[in-house]
UniProtKB/TrEMBL annotation:
InterPro entries: D-isomer_2-hydroxyacid_DH, D-isomer_2_OHA_DH_cat_dom, D-isomer_DH_CS1, D-isomer_DH_NAD-bd, NAD(P)-bd_dom_sf
Family, per entry: Belongs to the D-isomer specific 2-hydroxyacid dehydrogenase family. GhrB subfamily.
Record protein name field: Glyoxylate/hydroxypyruvate reductase B
Species whose genome carries this gene: Chryseobacterium bernardetii
Top-level lineage group: Bacteria
Amino acid sequence: MKVFINKRIPEIGIHMLEEAGLQVALPESENLTYEEWLRYCQNTDTILSIGTDFRYDKEFFEACPNVKAIALYSVGFDHVDIKEANQRNIPIGNTPDVLSRATSDVAFLLMQSVARRASYNFQKVKEGGWDAFDPLHALGQELYGKTLGIFGLGRIGFQMAEKCKKAFDMEIIYHNRHRNEEAERELKATYVSFDELVRNSDVLSIHANFTPEHKDLFNESVFEKMSPNAIFINTARGGFHQEQDLYNALTEGKIWGAGLDVTNPEPMAEDNPLLELSSVCILPHIGSATVEARNGMAILAAENIIAFSKGEEMLNCANPEIYYHHSS
């Protein structure tokens, strides 16, 4: 069985695939055009997919009928048309859990960086702007006892809430499709409506899976309901927030600051006006960028491919409702 990997991953994952007797194909260049990527995919049985540059949609599946399984090097699968995959009995693997701590660390980092205007002040030092002491210049805010609102209190959201509870004794409120009894029990988290979440959060952090109905969910009407001292954090997907509305909310004083590890589009343009605001911190989608997390993702993705090659169900499957059979 042939496995196409569109970008190099940690060697441990590649080694696992080869040890399992699978033929691994890597592109000569990782900056593939859509047509080049498609040609590689048309000549493989399975794909270990890194990034969200290209979509796995109806057009793709029709162009690549030989593809029998896809293992994503990510937790999110919003760039995959699950309905189309289901119709073709194609399992879509993902990599939950192993990056929860790393991603929540980045959300926690962004919250603190925004609260203390760290990016702005670091840039001042780099540019030689370390001026004389000014008691009123670019003041930050403290987080002790504030209210953290979590949109999507799953694995990553729980880790973020736990950090905030222990470090700053923050009150935790959340909005989910379903109640999180563990968080309510262990973190004293309170389930609230979406409107209550927006109105009552001093820090609002997004940790939900992105779906089409979430597009631009955090827009002008939502920002207008937030506290003028609120901090908005997004480490999930850029599609959750409308960036022009976010910029307007910040410059008009409707909210206080924002920390983003995801933007829309990615990468963010270097002249994006959000980058000029002192109470904004933006990172280039580094939520899982630790040795430990990336190795763990490589292992899970390889395990998903290996399980499929043996005719077994993937260990972590985004569409477990499908039934499939395969013999190597």
